[in-house]
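User: Fold this; tokens only.

Assistant: Input:
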Amino acid sequence: MNVGAFPAIGGGEPRGACAYNRRMPQAPQTPPQKIVPQPIRSGIDIEINGRRYRHTGDPELPLLWYLRDVLRLTGCKYGCDDTSCGACSVLVDGKLKRACTLSMQAVVDKRITTVEGLAGADGKLHPVQQAWIDEDAILCGYCQSGQIMAAVDLLARKPNPSDADIDGIGNLCRCGKRK
């Protein structure tokens, strides 16, 4: 066993140190005399799935990209960028909205629910989510979170919707299996 490869006891230079494994010199650091708290950054306060967030970036950032890229809530999908497909559907203060064209500025102090936030605190799925599973309604899956959100919105407005109400949801299916 080559003991020269291990650091010396007491934290000194390792025996046999070369230019590639020597400790880097550290500049002396003086602790600050006084720690001064900085004011809270201004931003856009929102509630997403029951949790408070503050967005301090571009107020024109679409909600879709905040959900996906910042919070990593990927149930909300990008599909069209013009509200026509519904893959990015979320509930804003209980009303169905398309996140692709909704800026962060437009959701100041709003409550947003994504498909990830439908389940209860105990992990029990929302009845629409459970029905989706029970009825084996899953196809490719890309548009399904938007369709589930649209169904939740419709049932909140009309507990006994007609076929025409259901057909009027207007979400598009990317794989072409649904209307």
